[in-house]
Write a structure and sequence with these properties.
143 residues
Length: 143
């Protein structure tokens, strides 16, 4: 979800695995292993974004990013398509905020994973949600 292109996703996965391997010795056990692993992965993804400059303004929306069950209505498919399309218009940090939120993390966990204060995470998340709503409204879809 963090990369638009399949090749870029594969490169990012390889980079994340490499960084996990390199930093495993520094895992102190102060948190759950999955939390530590997620933090390393997210930091690697954010660093990777900063290094990649050649595709800054190029976004391609893939129609088949996530296939829904046939029993789902066209309305849900339209909503999901618009949601993914709107997410592609967010910057890297905003994408990370939304995905952390969608994964069920609270403001405290989000702040820890992004290395920002809890208040800052709350404010940025609310602004990002509003931005997503406005982007979707520009596509002519009302909530």
């Amino acid at each position: 979800m963090y990369m638009d292109d399949k090749e870029d996703r594969n490169d990012l996965v390889q980079e994340i695995v490499l960084q996990l391997w390199k930093s495993f010795e520094r895992f102190e056990g102060n948190s759950q292993f999955s939390t530590w692993m997620y933090r390393v992965s997210l930091n690697t993804a954010l660093t990777y974004f900063k290094k990649e400059k050649k595709k800054t303004d190029r976004y391609t929306f893939l129609d088949n990013v996530d296939k829904l069950d046939e029993s789902d209505t066209n309305e849900k498919e339209t909503q999901l398509d618009l949601f993914y399309k709107a997410i592609h218009e967010l910057n890297k940090v905003e994408k990370a905020l939304i995905f952390l939120f969608l994964e069920g993390q609270n403001h405290k966990e989000i702040s820890r994973n992004l290395g920002i204060s809890e208040v800052n995470a709350r404010v940025k998340l609310n602004r990002t949600k509003e931005k997503l709503q406005n982007i979707i409204k520009t596509y002519g879809y009302e909530f």
